[in-house]
Design goal:
Length: 570
């Protein structure tokens, strides 16, 4: 019987390894820069010609190598980072597999120049994996690797390379990612003789982020600092008011290593809850620190993915970290910079505070007397006068300017926070109707009522099937005196059936957003001063930045400086 199994020649094995590690010029750049970082480089210079298809050169001022190590580095599985299988657990270096350099050399014409600071330097050339020449060279300490004619001996792979512009963009992204991961190291990227990126060493993370992502985007970010259990999360997230449906940037690091994880990105977005519109995507720069033995970084050939020992735990901590950062954030406003809103006479007595926070007491008569009698206790520089304009906006004077509140968005936010508490608690008080509402629904709406029956009951709607597609509503909530129970119920059910608020992954949050949108006071409804005051009291008691469930800001400040500038006083 003829033999069917044979040992592959080294040249073929090297090209197979190259297929896993070297996909395009950007892969070469990434591997060589990571080797430079592992060598302790303080400055890395990258040069590209024709997107890297003609030439890639990466030079560093790291530790360098002696002649014997330089020659040995071109052998497969040769590495200075791993000595035993135990070293693979919690490995903290980048290029530890010992395949990148020989894999690159097997599909290119490679020149390696290095010096470890002892004696003379070494230069060697390799073509298609075959060592051509080894000689002495005078150079400073460090290493330079030049890769020419990538895939010259594998034309089938070379023809799949994209345009020079596309390959340049991919290489630029690889360098930018590593520059963000290592703000203490300087980077230069030169493309066809022009400088594309230049960042000095010893930058603070915020400075490096502004240099790489641009100051406009960096100016919309707020810091994150949070620790829980085995995880510590730091970095920056975008303010809710600046999130957009497109153009966002995301970057994750674990113990300084960049990686991709759509589930962690989703967990971070869940931390925004209803602070942004479901279609908006905030930019994120998050660094996760965890014990090395609790994360496996060797699960992807290109090291783009990692595996956490506690997957659920890290997702929970990332979501909490984002929520904690937003909780300390004052809403971003379109005009000027908001330094915080003054208290509007919040009662000090425990009983009064409890009434304010009771979801069933919004616009209550009892609260009016308590809140209205505190005007003399307001902070200095704050005017107690509240003014409603266009029956839609509430204006008052703050210590630093004029504050404008959208009454519908504000009430929407208040109701959303209250309903979330009701859905996880005992529910809201309901008013039983003397004449129950009889409402006919579509099949889709009837399915929505059946699937959301418990949530409807908790907010105050007691619904009973009447036959066919008709239901009877026996009790309704009463969030404010102008509440139209039948209209709200119909609109809610229609929204739930159409999935209009389907951007939230959490079912209870989706339901709360739907109810808040439909039950809130509308633009165009006149409020008296007591109602305006109580609405503001409730708004300032919420935990998250005051944005409605669609992500629209509820508050805008017109600074005093802006008023004076417009009237020529500055």
């Amino acid at each position: 019987m003829p033999r069917c199994i044979a040992i592959l020649p080294d040249a073929v094995a090297d090209q197979i390894a190259a297929g896993e590690v070297v996909e395009r010029p950007a892969s070469v750049v990434k591997e060589l820069v990571e080797n430079a970082l592992d060598a302790g480089a303080r400055h890395v210079r990258i040069e590209l010609e024709n997107g890297g298809k003609v030439r890639i050169e990466v030079g560093d001022d790291g530790s360098g190598m002696g002649r014997e190590d330089a020659v040995l580095a071109l052998d497969r599985h040769a590495t200075s980072k791993v000595r035993s299988a135990a070293d693979l657990v919690g490995v903290s270096t980048f290029g530890f597999r010992g395949e990148a350099l020989p894999a690159i050399a097997s599909v290119s014409r490679l020149t390696l120049s290095t010096h470890d600071g002892v004696g003379e330097g070494t230069e060697l050339t390799v073509a298609g994996g075959r060592l051509d020449r080894v000689g002495a060279i005078a150079r400073q300490r460090g290493t330079s690797v030049t890769v020419r004619a990538l895939f010259f001996n594998t034309p089938a792979r070379r023809k799949f390379l994209r345009s020079a512009a596309s390959e340049t963009r991919a290489a630029h992204e690889a360098v930018a990612t590593l520059a963000l991961a290592h703000p203490r190291t300087g980077f230069e990227l030169h493309v066809d003789g022009g400088c594309r990126l230049a960042v000095p060493p010893d930058q603070e993370p915020a400075e490096r982020l502004a240099a790489v992502w641009g100051r406009d985007l960096a100016g919309t970010l707020v810091p994150v600092h949070y620790a829980a259990g085995a995880f510590r999360v730091s970095g920056y997230i975008q303010r809710p008011g600046d999130a957009q449906p497109t153009g966002r940037r995301t970057q994750l690091f674990v113990n300084g290593r960049p990686f991709k994880d759509p589930f962690l990105i989703r967990a971070a977005e869940a931390g925004y809850r209803a602070a942004i519109h479901p279609g908006d995507r905030p930019s994120l720069y998050l660094r996760i620190d965890v014990a090395p033995e609790d994360v496996d970084v060797n699960v992807h050939p290109a090291k783009l993915e990692v595996r956490f020992r506690d997957r659920i735990g890290v997702e929970r901590v990332v979501e909490e970290a984002v929520r904690f950062a937003l909780g300390a954030l004052v809403a971003a406003v379109p005009v000027g910079e908001w330094r915080g809103l003054p208290s509007i006479g919040l009662p000090n007595e425990p009983s009064a505070t409890a009434s304010i926070l009771d979801p069933g007491q919004l616009f209550s008569t009892e609260l009016a007397g308590e809140a209205g009698g505190l005007e003399e206790e307001r902070p200095a520089g704050f005017s107690a006068l509240l003014l409603q304009v266009f029956d839609s906006y509430i204006l008052y004077q703050g210590p630093d300017g004029v504050i404008i509140v959208d009454q519908h968005s504000a009430h929407e936010r208040v109701l959303y926070e209250a309903v979330l508490a009701q859905l996880s608690g005992v529910g809201a008080p309901a008013q039983r109707l003397l004449l129950p509402l009889t409402i006919e629904l579509t099949d889709e709406e009837l399915d929505a009522v059946e699937s959301q029956g418990e949530e409807l009951r908790r907010v105050g709607f007691e619904v009973e099937a009447f036959g066919g597609r008709t239901v009877v509503v026996h009790t309704v909530p009463l969030p404010h005196p102008r509440f139209d129970a039948e209209s709200c119920f119909r609109e809610m059910v229609a929204d739930l059936a159409r999935g209009r608020f389907g951007g939230w992954s959490n079912r209870l949050q989706r339901f709360a957003a739907t109810y808040a949108c439909r039950a809130a006071v509308k633009a165009g409804e006149r409020l008296d001063e007591r109602e305006m005051r109580e609405l503001l009291l409730r708004l300032f008691a919420t935990d998250l930045p005051p944005h409605d469930v669609h992500g629209r800001a509820t508050i805008v400040q017109l600074p005093r400086e802006e008023l004076e500038r417009r009237f020529g006083r500055r």
